[in-house]
Structure formats: C-alpha cells, structure tokens
Design brief:
GO terms for molecular function: copper ion binding; oxidoreductase activity. It comes from Oerskovia douganii. Belongs to the multicopper oxidase family. It is a single chain. This protein is about 5% helix and about 40% strand. It is mostly beta strands. The chain folds into 3 domains: about 1-30 and about 180-335, Sandwich (Immunoglobulin-like); about 35-165, Cupredoxins -  blue copper proteins (Immunoglobulin-like, Sandwich), CATH 2.60.40.420; about 355-475, Immunoglobulin-like, CATH 2.60.40.420. The strands form 6 sheets. It has a 6-stranded mixed beta sheet with strand order 1-14-22-21-16-19, with no helix packed on it. Strands 2, 3, 4, 6, 8 and 9 form a 6-stranded mixed beta sheet that branches. Strands 13-12-15-20-17-18 form a 6-stranded mixed beta sheet, with no helix packed on it. The structure holds CU-O-CU linkage and copper (II) ion (CU).
C-alpha cells in the first residue's frame, strides 16, 4: 500500500509541477544530421573483429558550449557496428574512462557471459572481448552500458551506438533487403533519438528537480548527437532506422503534415508486411525501421506527438505523453533518384503459437520493483529451460509508464489487455510498452546455450527504473539437470 500511495504522490507532484512542452514549429533545423560512422573491422581466422574504446571527452551539443560527455571511439555516442547472419564476431571493448562500465548488446541472441550485462564489468584500463556467432535475422540492434545503478547516467552522457545485422548475400532474405533502401547514410539512415536537458553553458543537465517517477525528460531532442538537425534526402524513398535511445521518454512519431509512412521493421527485424500508418510509438530501447516517401523539393518534419499512454484504473492518469517535440526535418532535393517500391512481403514471421508454451510466468511492475522485489545481483529470479517457449505476462500496477525488455530474446506480443497487438507490434520485439493496469502477454522462446552460472536480465527500460531496481535475472539451464544442482539452481538463489 505504501508503494501505491508513494506512486500517487509522485504522480500528483509531476502533474502539478511540470507543464506540457511543445517545440512544434519552433525548431529551426540549422545543422546537417550527423551520421554515425560504420565501425571498421578486420577478419582474423574467420572472426570479424571490432575495436571499441569507451572514452571521456567534450562535445559541442549545440547548446552554447562544450559538454563533458562519454563516447565510444569518439566523444559522444559510438560507431555503427555491422555484421552478417552466420558470422562470428568479436568485439574488443576497452574502457579508457575513469569509471567502470559495461557494454551490452541489446536485442542480440548470445551466450549470457557475452551479454555485457551488469556482471560483465569492464574496469578502467581493461579490455573485454566477447565473441559469438550472429544467429538471428537482419535487424537494427544497439549497444549501451548496463552497470547496475549507473546505466541511466552512462547512457545519458553519451554511451550508445547501433548494431546492424544483415542477411548473407544470395539468401532469399537478402533479396528483400536489397529491395529496400539500403545505402547507409544516404537512403538508409540511422536515427538515434535522445531527449536532453542543458545548463545555460551547454553542459548536459541530468537533474530532475521534481523527482519525477521516470527520470530526466528534456525538450531538446538530439538525433545522432545533432541538435536542430535536418537531413538532405536525395531519393524518392528513405528508410529511417529509428532508435529511441532516450532514458525515459516515450515518443509517438509522425510527420507535421500528417503524411503516412510505412513501418517495415521492429526491434528484432523486418515485419511480415509493411504497415502504413501516421503514428509510431517507440519506448526507450525500442527500434523501428520506417520508409518515408518524399516529393522533389519538399520539406517535412518528423515530430513526436502527444499520445494516450493508457489510464491506470486504480489511480489518476500519469503525465508524460503530452509533449509535442520536433525531431528532424527532411529536405528533399529538387530532383530525386528513383527508389524501388517497398516489397509487399518482407519476412516470414511464424504465427505466435501459444500452445508451444510450457510455462506461464507473471511479472508485476510497481514502484521500483518486479513482483515485489528490487534487483539483487546475487539472486536468480527465474530459471528457464534452454530452448523453452514460455508465456510471460507483464502488468504494471502503478501510474508511471513502464516498458519491459528481455535479454537474449526476440519475443512476440500475444495480446495487450486481451486485444491483439497493433500491427506494428506483430513482428519480433525485445522491448514493449506496458500499459498500466492491463496485462501484456509475451511469447518468448529462450536461447539454447545453458549456463546456470551467468544470468540474463529482464527489466523496465526506463533507465531510472532499471537502476532503482526494476530488474530481475534469469538463467537458461539444461532441462535435464536436477533442481538445486549447479546445472539448475533453484529460483531465489
Ligand atoms: Cu537495453 Cu538490459 O538493456
Ligand atoms: Cu519503468
């Protein structure tokens, strides 16, 4: 009860003290959008090797001065990694910062010890070299730190980048990939979207004076670290790989002129077929791939619109979905290169077969905890059989927005409050919005590499919530191992 009352008070304080922000029509779009460089790699004995260096630096984020920031192979954000399904990769991650961190491969299926979660710490001066074989469809994944209690701070200051997976040349999937816009930085453009607050001297402001329940939300939206960005579009269609890399903000993307666009991909890869819409919700950690059509010479603004985030039946409606924020201006050239039409069939997605599930687990999000427990790095919360398919039912009991992310998995959304999921959520997801007071049911198939010693995480991806304890750990074990043995710990260990 104390938690519910606390949530109510926090909600009331937020609603009372922060107004609704709108930057619609006020952003002047004076800077060309920066495109994160593609990370270079070498192939050594058949392994594609990347070198990443986490560093401290200073960056002009366009707010009146230099901001102390963190970056990967640079002072803010990091390069885009790119690998092909079937390839073995190794990432040599060096920490040149003065504090410990980690680097987690969000959305990747990989052995737990390579995951870069809170247990795979990289101390200052050290190098950590995870390696795995890419075994999942082409997708827009990302990487970011995951040090428990410090994730929000490290991401906010700039540690994040994209990890794009491709299909091997010559495969049927590659034919679809080639039919979509695919020239990186030209008609296939990554957008790392992050809202920030700034001090008058240009430094990042991470203070949250109202102690809102979600963490910092700012009215300056950086895309790939660029403030007030525009993108010169030279083709009839442009594919945007959008990452919500924000700590707390939930966006509802659309265009200022109301145009439709096509959603072609979700967190874990291409959808079965394009979904035509004028709005797309992305919660922190989520990605989507969209294709936008432009006419020669026109301009259109990618904007986040106010949204109905859902009402908790037990409490007041929470705030946080009411802002309108201009994000990026697309400027079409006077003459445009032709683009192929978007294929009508994109990927084979199996229909979600609930009958395949062997177990149903429930997760109740409330305050800073899941099922009444705050994150404990020494406690295993769930023990899952390798290769098992399960139903995970996630419910939010309070009036703060939450989402839910599961490591090492791309899941399917079975239903939300008993209704089939919206069309853009019918592909592979690793992160999903959790409507307050309603049950969101996920069908999750777990990885096949048992490791009872190294857990994966599940958590809310609003980073303050995650840092405060809204996270749990699961291990994937050999189904034949006896409970209570090293091969199969009992939950709660
Ligand atoms: Cu994007 Cu557990 O993380
Ligand atoms: Cu949350």
């Amino acid at each position: 009860a104390a938690l519910v009352v606390g949530g109510l008070l926090a909600g009331a304080a937020v609603a009372f003290s922060r107004g609704v922000t709108s930057t619609a029509g006020e952003v002047e779009f004076t800077r060309p959008l920066a495109i994160p460089p593609l990370a270079s790699s070498t192939v050594q004995d058949g392994v594609r090797v990347f070198t990443l260096d986490m560093q401290e630096g200073e960056t002009d984020l366009g707010q009146g001065g230099l901001a102390p920031t963190l970056g990967v192979n640079g002072s803010f954000l990091g390069p885009t990694l790119r690998a092909t399904r079937g390839e073995q990769v190794r990432i040599d991650v060096t920490n040149s910062m003065s504090e410990t961190s980690t680097l987690h491969w969000h959305g990747m299926k990989l052995p737990a010890v390579m995951d870069g979660g809170p247990h795979q710490q990289v101390e200052p001066g050290r190098t950590w070299s995870p390696t795995w074989t890419v075994a999942q469809p082409a997708a827009t994944l990302w990487y970011h730190p995951h040090l428990h209690g410090r994730t929000a701070d490290h991401v906010y200051r700039g540690l994040a980048g994209l990890f794009v997976l491709d299909e091997p040349a010559g495969s049927p999937e590659a034919a679809v990939q080639d039919a979509l816009p695919h020239e990186y930085g030209v008609d296939d453009v990554p957008l790392v979207v992050q809202d920030k607050k700034f001090h008058a001297d240009g430094r990042l402001d991470d203070a949250d004076p109202f102690l809102s329940s979600t963490g910092v939300r700012g009215s300056v939206v950086l895309v790939n670290g660029t403030a007030d960005p525009y993108l010169d579009v030279t083709t009839e269609r442009v594919r945007l790989r959008v990452l919500n890399g924000s700590n707390a903000r939930i966006y509802s993307f659309g265009f200022d002129d109301g145009r439709d666009f096509q959603v072609v991909g979700s967190d874990g890869g291409l959808l079965e077929a394009p979904v035509t819409t004028d709005r797309l919700r992305l919660t922190p950690g989520d990605r989507a791939e969209v294709v936008v059509e432009v006419e020669p010479g026109e301009r259109t603004v990618l904007r986040s619109f106010p949204q109905e985030l859902g009402v908790n039946p037990f409490t007041a409606r929470f705030s946080g979905g009411d802002d309108t924020l201009d994000v990026l201006e697309l400027r079409a050239a006077p003459t445009l290169e032709p683009s192929a039409p978007v294929p009508t069939t994109l990927a084979g997605i199996p229909s979600a077969d609930e009958g395949a599930a062997t177990t149903t687990r429930r997760f109740e999000l409330s305050g800073t905890s899941i099922n009444g427990q705050d994150m404990d790095l020494r406690r295993i919360d769930e023990v899952v059989d390798a290769g098992a398919t399960e139903v995970w039912e996630v419910t939010s009991l309070d009036d703060s927005p939450h989402n839910f992310h599961v490591h090492d998995a791309q899941f399917q959304v079975l239903d939300v409050a008993g209704e089939p999921p919206p069309l853009d959520l019918r592909g592979w997801q690793d992160t999903v919005y959790v409507r307050p007071g309603k049950v969101t049911r996920l069908l999750v198939t777990f990885g096949t590499t048992p490791d009872a010693e190294h857990p994966y995480m599940f958590h809310c991806h609003l980073l303050r919530h995650e840092d405060q304890g809204m996270m749990g750990q699961f291990v994937v074990v050999d189904p034949s191992a006896a409970p209570g043995t090293a091969g199969r710990p009992a939950p709660g260990d």
